[in-house]
User: What shape does this take?
Amino acid sequence: MHISILTFEGFNELDSLIALGILNRVAKPNWRVTIASPAARVRSMNGVVLESQVSLAEASTADAVIIGSGMRTREIVADASIMEQIQLDPSRQLLGAQCSGTLLLARLGMLAGVPACTDLTTKPWVQDAGIEVLNQAFFAKGNVATAGGCLASQYLAAWVIARLEGVDAAQSAVHYVAPVGEKEDYVLRAMNTISPYLGDTAVTA
Assistant: This one.
């Protein structure tokens, strides 16, 4: 099972790395989580440099793809050389987008007729792309999910785990990273947030 997080120049560390950390709590030999970028290295909005583990083309074949956000997303969606490398298909993949990643998902045509979540800065850009923006942290329809607000990345990661490995695995992953003394509250909040969107059968590669 391969889950890839698309991460671009100027990325938001919270969006990509919180999801990366939670997703890697699934300790199975066939479970692989990667950072995918258009270049060998990308620098975050705060100067943190990450090495890409797979190309955008390889990420496009993953079982699940999460699109992270960053301060240069509008430049990314305007760059045809990058966008043409991202070939996604919700009929065979779980697709998720975090904050301004929602704009990228919209530009790829994955949100046609589907409302979405995003951060407050990105909201008008997503609306300009013809997408209804919801005033909530997480929403999913079928195999496509969006989240708004950096810390909502936990919901996106939990949804992917629940869809691919089951609710127990998602609860366990959230429990592991939640603050001591607040673990039950965090697990309950996360599961209450994503549970309305778990009615679909798991995707198959």
Notes: The CA atoms of residues 106 and 121 lie 16 Å apart.
